[in-house]
Model the fold of this input.
Amino acid sequence: MEQIELLEAGNTAEDLLPKMKLTVTQAGASRELEIDTILFATGRAPNVLGMGLEEAGVEYSVGDGIYANPKMQTSNSDIYTVGDCVSAAMSSEEAKTVPGTGP
Done:
């Protein structure tokens, strides 16, 4: 079972700020990643405007959300996505065939 433990900035040592640590446990092995930002969205419709996704090379649709692979990795291999901003389709091409999705 995969497990992700998110440590908020307030839960880290002061000398690590503004960096955060993300502990990823997979197949019984853990590794710790140092990250700048965790981006997530909640709600019923994806709120993807004004986030700089185009500049970051992240493929998305205003009405559908951010396209990601099964591991939640976006078209920019350094950016992952979670929450309601994730599209049910993995790409704009797949969105043409998945009911309820589309560019």
